[in-house]
Amino acid sequence: MPDPILIGIDTGGTFTDFICLGPDGVRVHKRPSTPDDPARAVLDGLAVLLKDQARGAVRITYGSTVATNAVLERKGARVVLLTTAGFEDMLEIGRQTRPELYALEPSPPVSLVERRRRIGVAERMAFDGRVLQPLGAAAVRRAVQAVRRAGGESIAVCLLHAYANGLHERRLGRALAELGVPCSLSHELVAEYREVERGSTTVLNAYVAPVMRRHLATLAKGVGRRASLRVMQSNGGAVSVATAGREAVRTLLSGPAGGAIGAVAAARRVGIQRVIAFDMGGTSTDVSLLDGAPRQQTEWTIGELAVKVPAIDIHTVGAGGGSIAARDAGGALVVGPQSAGADPGPACYGRGELPTVTDADLLLGRLVPEAFLGGGMRLDRARAARAVGRLARSLRLGVEATADGIVRVVNAAMERAIRRISVERGLDPRAYALVSFGGAGGMHAAELAEALDVRCVLVPAHPGLLSAWGAVTADVQRDYVQTVRLCEPPARVLARRLAPLLARARRELRAEGAARTAIVLRATLDVRYRGQSYELAVPLAAGYRAAFDAAHRARYGYADAERAVEVVNIRLSASAPGPRPRVVAPRRTTGQLRPHRLRWRGRWLAARRGERTALPGRRRLAGPLLITELSATTLVPPGWTVRVAPSGDLLMERR
Predict the structure, then answer these.
(1) What is the pLDDT of residues 269-282, one digit of tens each?
(2) Residue among 243, 125, 137, 240 nearest 187 (CA)
């Protein structure tokens, strides 16, 4: 039986990227996204890729922005929240933190659930799972009637301390099933204490699940029975369509997670361990620190809303190729976070009117009009000049000076993002290499590296499609958690508490299609000193106490061996390895480097340009040099050299 055709897809705000590994080798494709219906671009691209492929099995892994956009644009389902009576306003009260400490009139947090759709239920659990107030049949009937009157499209159930005992939530879930409305139960999504975060996560799931289910149903119908479809999660693993639709909150960072997985693989190919992943796309830039593997976080926010499911630690800023440049009320030049997106797109794409970073890059010679998308889309330089010119007149600057300014401003925003995940956490970016990918990353990577004093930049093969490559290679993965709140328990006690999670993980991964012998299980503990309100993760082992002291000393500069420790949560990550295809470097051609004019730091320079496939293997070339290919353009500025590694990846180094 022939090997299946593997396809990775990443839907971005501007382009939808495809990478296909089949009997004919690697095929790549890129097409404008369709924000009104993201499935349309995906299905159109698949039709192109599979048109000439022989019949056979197809495995598709898809990184989606549907759930993300539903939250950020507030276009999710109408949610009804059921919670313990007296706690209806818990999410609005939150932790009473003030994001803007000195704001005299701070904006209150925006709730996804209107007050009239928050329903209190007469019941109560204790923190240890004891029933303090039973949930009676009459209370269940009243709750169902209230939900019916509220007219919600989706239901979130988050009862107090349900993580310790989900009995009442399950009873409500069975009764609510008669309404035929999707229902999210908190103890199934987040079996973990901290009511605000657990409630917020449950509401977010209810908010995006109906949207995600409709989208995935359209995709599944479009690909037909020939293909199996998996969806990327925020943790960097992939799951089935059924799981992604039911637990859609786990896909909120689906697209960026694929990029982090691809960046780790690219770094391993060239023998680099510590890297900063820099993904500059059309709408935003995603950055993350990778030390042999992606760093995970278990609590984060999206659109000021708390999320408590595992995700790769990724920081996003509204700075991309489509970010719009404008003059603010004070007369200063600003770039983003608003984006021209895929429609109408940058002015040089032929439909937009507003100046963007892409227009500035084109005017500065960082893009070649006839080489964009491998020649599949010609850029309109005159239209870009008119758009930037209108902004230049309002700033009383020249067109070229304004384009220079746009690049400097967007670079500053991306530099701040990288400093936030490195310097602000006590980590020195000089100890890392920069992995540059995304359609726009290569044009700005060297400048960022110089600002951060990073000496090496890695530009992987097919850099504009790295998130799609990460999706192809993603493991099947599920994460589980259970709050235990025990003071210095022996490892054998923790092992007993872990046993139900192990059984559930094996059962659910088998349902995802993983072979029994391929399942890998990794258990960790969330540990803190007694009285602290934050935890550190350490492996579940007999010596977890010593491991925690060492981790606390490394993170905070001290440890207290005499102080009691508390194990708060047991976590389990269950995975099965995904495909590990070999990267095939693009075949070299006999093309020549051509003369090119490039503007660098306010001056026009004589440079060279050429296709990536025309670069000589392993020989160093000095900048200024512009390297073009289908998915991206890479700028090698003065003072830098570039060589092609045996793997086909580009290594840029400061001289």
Answers:
(1) 999 999 999 999 88
(2) 125
